[in-house]
TrEMBL record:
It holds the Pfam family PseudoU_synth_1. GO terms for molecular function: RNA binding; tRNA pseudouridine(38-40) synthase activity. Substrate binds at residue 113. Keywords: Isomerase, tRNA processing. This is tRNA pseudouridine synthase A. It catalyses: uridine(38/39/40) in tRNA = pseudouridine(38/39/40) in tRNA. The gene is truA. One of its GO terms (biological process) is tRNA pseudouridine synthesis. InterPro entries: PsdUridine_synth_cat_dom_sf, PsdUridine_synth_TruA, PsdUridine_synth_TruA_a/b_dom, PsdUridine_synth_TruA_C, TruA/RsuA/RluB/E/F_N. Transmembrane segments: none annotated. Formation of pseudouridine at positions 38, 39 and 40 in the anticodon stem and loop of transfer RNAs. Its EC number is 5.4.99.12. Residues 5-106, 147-249 form the Pseudouridine synthase I TruA alpha/beta domain.
Length: 277
Protein backbone atom coordinates (compact mmCIF):
# COMPACT_ATOMS: atom_id res chain seq x y z
CA UNK A 1 0.00 0.00 0.00
CA UNK A 2 1.12 3.54 -0.76
CA UNK A 3 0.03 6.02 1.91
CA UNK A 4 -0.11 9.77 2.44
CA UNK A 5 -0.76 11.66 5.65
CA UNK A 6 -0.57 15.05 7.31
CA UNK A 7 1.40 14.25 10.46
CA UNK A 8 0.43 17.39 12.38
CA UNK A 9 -2.18 15.77 14.60
CA UNK A 10 -0.54 12.35 14.86
CA UNK A 11 1.96 11.20 17.49
CA UNK A 12 4.09 9.70 14.75
CA UNK A 13 3.72 6.49 12.78
CA UNK A 14 4.14 3.76 15.40
CA UNK A 15 1.29 2.62 17.63
CA UNK A 16 1.51 4.01 21.18
CA UNK A 17 -0.96 3.39 24.00
CA UNK A 18 -3.38 6.26 24.46
CA UNK A 19 -2.06 8.25 21.47
CA UNK A 20 -3.36 8.85 17.98
CA UNK A 21 -0.90 7.37 15.46
CA UNK A 22 -0.96 6.69 11.74
CA UNK A 23 -0.33 2.98 12.16
CA UNK A 24 -3.13 2.46 14.68
CA UNK A 25 -5.57 4.52 12.58
CA UNK A 26 -4.99 2.53 9.38
CA UNK A 27 -4.75 -0.87 11.08
CA UNK A 28 -8.04 -0.37 12.92
CA UNK A 29 -9.89 0.73 9.78
CA UNK A 30 -8.37 -1.95 7.55
CA UNK A 31 -9.14 -4.66 10.10
CA UNK A 32 -12.76 -3.53 10.10
CA UNK A 33 -13.01 -3.66 6.31
CA UNK A 34 -11.29 -7.03 5.98
CA UNK A 35 -12.87 -8.49 9.13
CA UNK A 36 -9.46 -9.81 10.13
CA UNK A 37 -6.68 -8.40 12.34
CA UNK A 38 -4.08 -6.50 10.28
CA UNK A 39 -0.51 -5.61 11.25
CA UNK A 40 1.40 -3.21 9.02
CA UNK A 41 5.14 -3.22 8.25
CA UNK A 42 6.28 0.25 7.21
CA UNK A 43 9.13 1.39 4.96
CA UNK A 44 10.20 4.08 7.42
CA UNK A 45 8.75 5.17 10.74
CA UNK A 46 8.08 8.89 10.97
CA UNK A 47 8.12 10.99 14.13
CA UNK A 48 5.30 13.11 15.52
CA UNK A 49 4.47 15.97 13.17
CA UNK A 50 6.28 14.49 10.14
CA UNK A 51 4.27 14.03 6.94
CA UNK A 52 4.27 11.57 4.05
CA UNK A 53 3.00 11.51 0.49
CA UNK A 54 4.74 8.30 -0.59
CA UNK A 55 4.96 6.08 2.48
CA UNK A 56 4.86 2.33 1.74
CA UNK A 57 3.57 -0.51 3.93
CA UNK A 58 2.81 -4.18 3.52
CA UNK A 59 0.65 -6.62 5.45
CA UNK A 60 -0.39 -10.26 5.25
CA UNK A 61 -4.13 -10.94 5.08
CA UNK A 62 -6.14 -14.14 4.61
CA UNK A 63 -7.19 -14.65 0.99
CA UNK A 64 -10.78 -15.06 2.17
CA UNK A 65 -10.71 -11.47 3.47
CA UNK A 66 -10.39 -10.20 -0.11
CA UNK A 67 -13.47 -12.04 -1.37
CA UNK A 68 -16.16 -9.77 0.06
CA UNK A 69 -18.68 -8.22 -2.35
CA UNK A 70 -17.13 -4.75 -2.08
CA UNK A 71 -13.60 -5.99 -2.87
CA UNK A 72 -14.34 -9.06 -5.00
CA UNK A 73 -10.77 -10.31 -5.00
CA UNK A 74 -9.32 -7.01 -6.27
CA UNK A 75 -7.15 -5.34 -3.59
CA UNK A 76 -7.17 -2.04 -5.48
CA UNK A 77 -10.85 -1.66 -4.55
CA UNK A 78 -9.70 -1.06 -0.99
CA UNK A 79 -8.64 2.45 -1.99
CA UNK A 80 -12.23 3.64 -2.40
CA UNK A 81 -13.50 1.72 0.63
CA UNK A 82 -10.82 3.15 2.92
CA UNK A 83 -11.30 6.69 1.59
CA UNK A 84 -14.84 6.60 2.94
CA UNK A 85 -13.76 5.43 6.39
CA UNK A 86 -10.38 7.03 7.15
CA UNK A 87 -10.08 10.56 8.59
CA UNK A 88 -9.19 13.40 6.24
CA UNK A 89 -5.53 13.57 7.30
CA UNK A 90 -4.59 10.05 6.16
CA UNK A 91 -5.23 8.24 2.88
CA UNK A 92 -4.35 4.89 1.34
CA UNK A 93 -3.57 5.91 -2.24
CA UNK A 94 -2.80 2.57 -3.90
CA UNK A 95 -3.09 -1.12 -3.03
CA UNK A 96 -1.68 -4.12 -4.87
CA UNK A 97 -1.01 -7.77 -4.17
CA UNK A 98 2.65 -8.82 -4.09
CA UNK A 99 4.64 -11.97 -3.42
CA UNK A 100 5.85 -12.88 0.05
CA UNK A 101 9.38 -11.82 -1.02
CA UNK A 102 8.30 -8.19 -0.67
CA UNK A 103 9.15 -6.37 2.55
CA UNK A 104 8.27 -2.69 2.76
CA UNK A 105 11.19 -1.98 5.08
CA UNK A 106 14.01 -4.30 4.11
CA UNK A 107 13.46 -4.54 0.35
CA UNK A 108 13.71 -0.76 -0.10
CA UNK A 109 16.64 0.67 -2.05
CA UNK A 110 16.21 4.28 -0.96
CA UNK A 111 13.91 6.75 0.79
CA UNK A 112 13.50 10.30 -0.44
CA UNK A 113 12.41 13.14 1.84
CA UNK A 114 11.61 16.76 1.19
CA UNK A 115 12.17 19.48 3.78
CA UNK A 116 10.54 22.92 3.48
CA UNK A 117 12.14 25.80 5.38
CA UNK A 118 11.03 29.45 5.39
CA UNK A 119 13.50 32.17 6.38
CA UNK A 120 11.20 35.16 5.74
CA UNK A 121 10.95 37.67 8.59
CA UNK A 122 7.29 36.70 9.14
CA UNK A 123 8.00 32.97 9.12
CA UNK A 124 6.08 30.36 7.14
CA UNK A 125 3.14 31.29 4.93
CA UNK A 126 -0.04 30.60 6.95
CA UNK A 127 -1.62 28.57 4.14
CA UNK A 128 1.30 26.13 4.16
CA UNK A 129 2.52 26.47 7.76
CA UNK A 130 1.54 22.92 8.71
CA UNK A 131 4.05 21.65 6.11
CA UNK A 132 6.76 24.33 6.38
CA UNK A 133 9.25 24.99 9.16
CA UNK A 134 10.65 28.44 9.86
CA UNK A 135 14.18 29.68 10.54
CA UNK A 136 14.88 32.93 12.43
CA UNK A 137 17.81 34.07 10.25
CA UNK A 138 18.36 34.62 6.54
CA UNK A 139 19.83 31.57 4.82
CA UNK A 140 22.39 31.49 2.00
CA UNK A 141 21.32 28.67 -0.33
CA UNK A 142 24.78 28.41 -1.93
CA UNK A 143 26.45 27.85 1.45
CA UNK A 144 23.80 25.29 2.32
CA UNK A 145 24.39 23.39 -0.92
CA UNK A 146 28.13 23.37 -0.27
CA UNK A 147 27.60 22.02 3.26
CA UNK A 148 25.09 19.45 2.05
CA UNK A 149 27.40 18.20 -0.70
CA UNK A 150 30.18 17.65 1.85
CA UNK A 151 27.99 15.11 3.67
CA UNK A 152 26.97 13.01 0.66
CA UNK A 153 28.40 9.49 0.50
CA UNK A 154 28.80 6.42 2.68
CA UNK A 155 29.58 7.76 6.16
CA UNK A 156 28.99 7.23 9.84
CA UNK A 157 26.28 9.77 10.70
CA UNK A 158 26.46 9.19 14.46
CA UNK A 159 26.67 12.95 15.11
CA UNK A 160 23.26 13.36 13.43
CA UNK A 161 21.41 10.41 14.97
CA UNK A 162 19.79 9.63 18.29
CA UNK A 163 21.28 6.46 19.78
CA UNK A 164 19.36 3.20 19.46
CA UNK A 165 20.75 0.01 20.97
CA UNK A 166 21.86 -2.52 18.34
CA UNK A 167 21.44 -0.19 15.36
CA UNK A 168 24.06 1.19 13.00
CA UNK A 169 24.56 4.85 12.13
CA UNK A 170 26.42 4.10 8.90
CA UNK A 171 24.31 5.22 5.97
CA UNK A 172 24.76 6.07 2.30
CA UNK A 173 23.50 9.61 1.78
CA UNK A 174 22.85 9.64 -1.96
CA UNK A 175 21.50 13.15 -2.46
CA UNK A 176 21.21 16.31 -0.35
CA UNK A 177 20.48 19.54 -2.21
CA UNK A 178 18.59 22.81 -1.74
CA UNK A 179 16.64 25.23 -3.93
CA UNK A 180 14.34 28.21 -3.42
CA UNK A 181 10.84 27.77 -4.81
CA UNK A 182 8.72 30.50 -6.39
CA UNK A 183 7.48 31.58 -2.96
CA UNK A 184 11.02 31.97 -1.61
CA UNK A 185 10.85 28.87 0.59
CA UNK A 186 13.98 26.72 0.76
CA UNK A 187 13.25 23.14 -0.28
CA UNK A 188 15.68 20.31 0.39
CA UNK A 189 15.71 16.94 -1.32
CA UNK A 190 17.34 14.26 0.84
CA UNK A 191 17.78 10.67 -0.33
CA UNK A 192 19.57 7.77 1.36
CA UNK A 193 19.44 3.99 1.42
CA UNK A 194 18.03 4.37 4.95
CA UNK A 195 17.89 6.95 7.73
CA UNK A 196 18.47 6.56 11.44
CA UNK A 197 16.38 8.24 14.13
CA UNK A 198 16.22 12.07 13.71
CA UNK A 199 18.89 12.00 10.98
CA UNK A 200 17.13 14.11 8.33
CA UNK A 201 16.09 16.87 10.72
CA UNK A 202 19.60 16.94 12.19
CA UNK A 203 21.17 17.15 8.73
CA UNK A 204 18.89 20.09 7.97
CA UNK A 205 19.73 21.77 11.27
CA UNK A 206 23.48 21.39 10.77
CA UNK A 207 23.40 22.77 7.24
CA UNK A 208 21.10 25.63 8.23
CA UNK A 209 23.54 26.96 10.85
CA UNK A 210 26.16 27.03 8.10
CA UNK A 211 23.68 28.78 5.83
CA UNK A 212 22.96 31.51 8.38
CA UNK A 213 26.68 32.09 9.02
CA UNK A 214 27.01 30.81 12.57
CA UNK A 215 29.13 27.81 11.55
CA UNK A 216 31.54 27.18 8.68
CA UNK A 217 31.96 24.36 6.20
CA UNK A 218 34.89 22.78 8.08
CA UNK A 219 32.71 22.43 11.18
CA UNK A 220 30.05 20.63 9.16
CA UNK A 221 32.54 18.22 7.58
CA UNK A 222 34.13 17.60 10.98
CA UNK A 223 30.87 16.20 12.32
CA UNK A 224 31.44 13.06 10.26
CA UNK A 225 34.42 12.19 12.48
CA UNK A 226 32.30 12.11 15.63
CA UNK A 227 31.00 8.80 16.93
CA UNK A 228 28.10 9.93 19.07
CA UNK A 229 25.25 12.38 18.85
CA UNK A 230 26.58 15.97 18.75
CA UNK A 231 24.95 18.50 21.07
CA UNK A 232 26.07 21.23 18.64
CA UNK A 233 23.68 20.02 15.94
CA UNK A 234 20.19 21.55 16.17
CA UNK A 235 17.24 19.36 15.23
CA UNK A 236 14.98 21.16 12.75
CA UNK A 237 11.23 21.27 13.29
CA UNK A 238 9.22 18.16 12.43
CA UNK A 239 6.56 19.98 10.42
CA UNK A 240 8.89 20.78 7.52
CA UNK A 241 9.64 17.12 6.77
CA UNK A 242 7.75 14.89 4.32
CA UNK A 243 8.55 11.37 3.09
CA UNK A 244 8.06 11.67 -0.67
CA UNK A 245 8.87 8.22 -2.04
CA UNK A 246 10.40 4.82 -1.40
CA UNK A 247 12.24 3.02 -4.19
CA UNK A 248 12.40 -0.76 -4.65
CA UNK A 249 14.29 -3.08 -7.03
CA UNK A 250 12.52 -5.34 -9.55
CA UNK A 251 10.45 -8.16 -8.03
CA UNK A 252 13.12 -10.75 -8.83
CA UNK A 253 15.52 -8.91 -6.49
CA UNK A 254 13.21 -8.35 -3.49
CA UNK A 255 14.43 -11.34 -1.46
CA UNK A 256 18.12 -10.64 -2.08
CA UNK A 257 17.71 -6.97 -1.21
CA UNK A 258 15.95 -7.81 2.05
CA UNK A 259 18.73 -10.21 3.05
CA UNK A 260 21.41 -7.62 2.24
CA UNK A 261 19.67 -4.84 4.17
CA UNK A 262 19.37 -6.99 7.29
CA UNK A 263 23.18 -7.21 7.50
CA UNK A 264 24.32 -4.56 10.01
CA UNK A 265 27.05 -2.31 8.65
CA UNK A 266 30.21 -1.59 10.58
CA UNK A 267 33.18 0.76 10.21
CA UNK A 268 35.09 -1.69 7.99
CA UNK A 269 32.81 -0.62 5.13
CA UNK A 270 34.19 2.91 5.40
CA UNK A 271 37.85 1.92 4.96
CA UNK A 272 39.51 2.35 1.62
CA UNK A 273 36.45 3.56 -0.28
CA UNK A 274 36.10 6.98 -1.85
CA UNK A 275 32.77 7.69 -0.21
CA UNK A 276 34.04 7.00 3.30
CA UNK A 277 37.28 8.99 3.07
Amino acid sequence: MRIGYDGTDFSGWATQPGRRTVQETIETTLSTVLRSPVRLTVAGRTDAGVHASGQVVHCDVPVDSLQSRSIDGDPSRLVRRLAKMLPDDVRVKAVEQVSTDFDARFAALARTYEYRLADALWGAEPTSARMTADWPRHLDVDLMNAASASLVGLNDFAAFCRFREGSTTIRELQEFSWRRDDAGVLVARVRADAFCWSMVRSLVGAVAVVGDGRRDLDWCVGLLAERERSAQVPVAQARGLCLMRVDYPPESEWAARSALTRDVRDESELRGGCCGD
